[in-house]
Structures are given as structure tokens and as C-alpha cells.
Amino acid sequence: MSKLESLNQWVEAVARSTQPERVHWCDGSEAENDALIDLMLQRGDLIELNPRTHPDCYLHRSNPSDVARVEHLTFICTKSKDDAGPNNHWMDPAEAHAKVDALFAGCMKGRTLYVIPYCMGPIDSPLSRCGVEITDSPYVVANMRIMTRMGAAALERIEREGTFVKGQHSTGELDPHKRFIMHFPEELTIKSIGSGYGGNALLGKKCHALRIASYQARTEGWLAEHMLIVGIQNPKGETHYIAAAFPSACGKTNLAMLIPPESYLKAGWKVWTVGDDICWMTPGADGRLWAINPEAGFFGVAPGTSAKTNPNALAMLNHDTIFTNVAVTADGDPWWEGLPDGVPVKDWQGRDYLATNGPAAHPNSRFTVSAKQCPSWSPHAEDPQGVPISAIIFGGRREHLVPLVFEARDWTHGVLVGSAMGSETTAAATGAVGVLRRDSMAMKPFCGYNFADYFAHWLSLEKSGAKLPKIFHVNWFRKGDDGKFLWPGFGDNMRVLEWILGRSNGSEGAEETPIGNIPRAQDLNLDGLDLTRSKLEALLHVDLESWAAEYESIGEYLASYGARMPQKLLDEHRRIAALLAEDVAESDAVGTP
Ligand code: GTP
Ligand code: SPV
Ligand code: MN
């Protein structure tokens, strides 16, 4: 029970409908967590991993039909369909409530209803927001305890503030035909049923901190973004913060925990992790954007994580970690593709690995771990006022066309670059992998309202007194004719970050092109990097003809939003398309004998 009557009433109403055997209010304590872990071990929801190499680490195998976010079953339920926009699946709120309420009716019979009060962001930060998730899944409770500030302190803040986002969740029957992730931004309410997986079930994460928060941020003048936050400390000891939006499974966790190349380490550079998935940014009194990470932990992609690619991540995963859908070795160690050592014996479904021909770990298998376990966790990550952002980066997975890095001319151009983002799809959501789609600001699955209004909101941040960061675009995933990545990526991405920060303070050079400013070979620090001249040229090449075609496709995309699309963005698009057309005509003329 709480001191807040509206909270008690809501919990009672949900209990009346779902009919649990008992109701448990989570306090977030160690003892409560121990009891939940014991319960899950007994029920087989968790498997204990090797206690010698991985103390207090557990494996959860989810239902094989429930291993990723389900975008086609995720709805934004605003009164007007246009407010949700073409970027979202929409359902009328009354219809959506009726549909899920029918599925929730009696769904917790014989189960425990857990009430999880949580705070997104440092508990004492004015930028943080609270919510309460109701769930019948102890796995969700254990994950929410790592991913958010959960329990007594959050409840106190909720009682003080009197408002909170309501999240109602049940694993239901885990039947994909009875699965819905419904958002009611106008009611600050989420209803999710039929999935126990990550972003579908840990409602503080994508449902609250992005879909509901983006809607609130628009009316209140801030931004809720699918971005990592990283601090780059230079040899002079100054730290500058960068926020970067990449779509799911496109490198946010890796960039947030980057370890610079040897030559940088020797010179005294350091990298600090503030967040790896979500960033809430608010214009401060000084005109700069100040950012907090609303999360308290990482729900990271396991495959590809190794001592070579992400040593910081690997170092935090050997104790107090929940693994979901990874494989295990004969010694009971967790295993996934990309780890050089260890031999998987059981795959992610618990089957004899040798008898299957699939991957050992699911491509979207994940670890849940407290941010405090990260060796590069920033001493400023929990500052109540947040950290000031010096540069914003957009990026995607583009095999072709898109250069390693370019800089937008100004804020409007940057907003266009973000809105035009394209990326090849990944295993983080169900559906085909590797299909190119527009994923504006990496928010396609996460924006709680019409993208046209969202772009207008971004544009509106540019006003007198604002000191906005410069905007860049990166692509670590360009491939050569041999089908291999041209850029080594990971730690070497530091070289690109140095150029970006150098551009932000005016100390680095670049070449102007219609799509933006590109570093010349001499503008990048390539010290100690084994990269051929031809690869570097390919990475920085801007093919005008292909870009003209890309801009045509971007134009069609922007037009699909109709009259709500801000004219300023359409004008910016037209300006660049014209520049490209001019340059193509010119080079054609030059090429004509
Ligand atoms: P979500 O948690 O789904 O939002 O993903 P994320 O954006 O945090 O992606 P993450 O850092 O977990 O990386 C996903 C995959 O991309 C992993 O398999 C990484 O190994 C791979 N990856 C990350 N950075 C790079 C890079 O610089 N180059 C290449 N080639 N691969 C990368
Ligand atoms: C993503 O898909 O972007 C994730 C994982 O970070 S989930 O929590 O499932 O959204
Ligand atoms: Mn993500």
C-alpha cells in the first residue's frame, strides 16, 4: 500500500481485473531480490551459471516465439490517428483498451502481482521522471531492479510528486496472437501483454523513457532520444560529451564504452560512459543541452561482445548479471558468437548445440547488468543537472553510399540528416534482417507521436540564446567490393570522435560537399592504424550521382508525411537536392568529350 490514494486505487483496479493470488509491493531490497531469484531458480525461469567464474549470474531462456521487440504489435493510441502519424501503428484508445483489457481479465489467476515503483534518472534529479509497473513476471522485476532506480526511494518520490506513468504488464499466454504493446500517451499509460521480452516488458525502457517521454518532451520543450551519452576526456583533462543515435543493434553500447587505440591512451585520452541507449536532453539556462541517462543499467546485445571489441562490457559481465538467450559451455559459462574461447554445448533454447545448425546464442541475446559495474562508468553519470552535450551524432548501418563521417552545415541541415537516416534492419526486432529502411533519428520504433511534429519540435529548439551542439552523421558499416567492413570500427571510432570534437571547437579541417563537410585524409588522426589508402578513399568518398538518387528517395519519404511536415525541412531538402543536381550536371559536362 502507498500513501498515494490514486496509486492504491489503480493497483486495486488492476488486481480486480487480473485476479492475482497475491499482491507484492516491491521495495527493491537485497532480500527481496534474493527471494525472487530463488523462486525463479525453483521454477526453472532462471538457470544458475558457473558460480566460480560468474558468481550471481543467471541465464533466462525466453519462449522461442518471444525473443525481440514486436513492432507490428506495438501501438500508439492517441484520440486522433494523425497525432500518432504514419511512423506508428495506431489504434483508437477505446478499442485498444477494450482489446487488451479482455486479455488482462483473469490473466494473473494463481500468480503474484508485483507493483514496481521506479524512477527513470538519478533519484534526486529534477530531470528524472517516475512510473509504476505492474507485472506478474519475477524476471521483469529482477531486470527492472537493475535497469531503473526501483523500490522505496522511487515510491517516496512518486508520493511526493503525486504523478507517475502507469504501466500494466502480464506475460499472458506468450501467444503472439494475443500480444499487444499499447501506449496511451494522452493518459500517460502503457498496457503490454503476451511478451516477457526486453523492450516489450521492461516498461521503464522503450515504452516509458522513449514513447511516452517523447510525447511529454514535446509539450514541455525537451527531447527523449534513442541515444548513448559518452564523455571524451582529452590530454588537457577537459571532458566533452557526445550523444549519438544509432538504431537498435547498430553500436550504441559499443561506442559508449569505447577504449581508445594505444596511441590515444599514451597521449592521455580517456572515455567515460554516461548512457548506452536512452538520453533525455533539456535546454539549460546557459542555452546548452543538458543530458541525463534515465537508466541505471545496460540491457546490451551479447553476440559480438568480446575482449577485443568491447573489453569494458566484458569486464562487467562476470558477476551479478542476468543473461537472456545466450548459449552455455560444459562448465556452465555463458557463451555467444564472437567470444574467442569456450565451446558451446547447449544453444539458447537449451538444445544440444551440435545437433542444431543455427547460432548457439540468439542473435538478439542480451545481458542485463548494473551500470555501476562498468569500468568506464562516468563519475558525472548521476549528476542531477546532467552533462552538457557538445555534439550530436546520427548513424546507421549502411553497406553502401554513406561515408564514414560528415558534418551538417547547421542545425536545420542536421535535423534533415537525422530525419533522413536509413539503416539496415537487425535482430533487435522481429522481421527480416538487413533490409534498408528509413529510421529517423533511430526513433522509428520509439517516437510516441507523428514524426512530422517531432521534426518540427527538433527545429523549434533553435531559438535566440540557444547554444546547440553541432550535428554529425557516421557509418561504421560501409563495405568494400569484397563484402567486408572497410572501417575497423570499435576502439578506432575514437579517431572519428576526435575529428567531431575538433570540428565543434573549430580546430579541425574538412572539405565541403553538398551532403555536408567531410574530413580529408589529413584531417583524421590515423596514427597506428593499418588502413590502405584505397580503403580510406572509399570510406570518405561521396558519389554525387548515387546521393542525388538518395535525396530523391528522402524527398519521397518526407512527402509521405503530408501537410504536417515542416516547410523548413522541405526547403532544406530541396536546397541540397538542387546542389547535388548541379554538381552531377557539371561532372557530366566535364565527362563529355
Ligand atoms: P540496442 O541495445 O539494440 O539499442 O543496440 P546498440 O545500438 O547498443 O548496439 P551494440 O553496441 O550492442 O552493437 C550491436 C552489434 O553491432 C554488435 O554485434 C557489435 O559487435 C556490432 N558493432 C558495434 N560497433 C561496431 C563497429 O564499430 N563496427 C562494426 N563492424 N560492428 C560494430
Ligand atoms: C533496442 O531494441 O533498441 C534495445 C533492446 O535496446 S529493447 O530493450 O528490447 O528495446
Ligand atoms: Mn536500443
Which percent bin holds the helix content? 25-40%
Poorly predicted regions: none
The averaged pLDDT comes out at 97
Span of the ends, CA to CA = 84 Å
- Continuous helix count: 17
- What is the count of β-strands? 30
The CATH topology annotation of the largest domain reads as Phosphoenolpyruvate Carboxykinase, domain 3
User: Structural class of the secondary structure composition?
Assistant: alpha/beta
CATH-level-2 architecture of the largest domain? Alpha-Beta Complex
Shape, per Cα inertia axes: globular
What count of domains describes the coordinates?
3
Ligands, deduplicated: guanosine-5'-triphosphate, sulfopyruvate, manganese (II) ion
Computed Rg: 24 Å
**What is the C-level CATH assignment of the largest domain?**
Alpha Beta
Give the amount of beta strand, in percent: 15-25%
Largest sheet: 9 strands, mixed
Structural overview:
This protein is of the alpha/beta class. The protein has three domains: 201 residues, Phosphoenolpyruvate Carboxykinase, domain 1, CATH 3.40.449; 269 residues, Phosphoenolpyruvate Carboxykinase, domain 3; 77 residues, Phosphoenolpyruvate Carboxykinase, domain 2 (Beta Complex). It is built from 17 helices and 30 strands. Strands 1, 4, 5, 6, 7, 8, 9, 10 and 11 form a nine-stranded mixed sheet that branches. Strands 12, 13, 14, 15, 16, 17, 24, 25 and 28 form a nine-stranded mixed sheet that branches. It has a five-stranded mixed sheet with strand order 2-3-19-23-18, covered by helices on one side. Helix 2 packs antiparallel against helix 5, helix 12 crosses helix 17 and helix 16 runs antiparallel to helix 17. It starts with a helix and ends with a helix. The mean pLDDT is 97. It binds guanosine-5'-triphosphate (GTP), sulfopyruvate and manganese (II) ion (MN). Guanosine-5'-triphosphate binds next to helix 9 and strand 18.
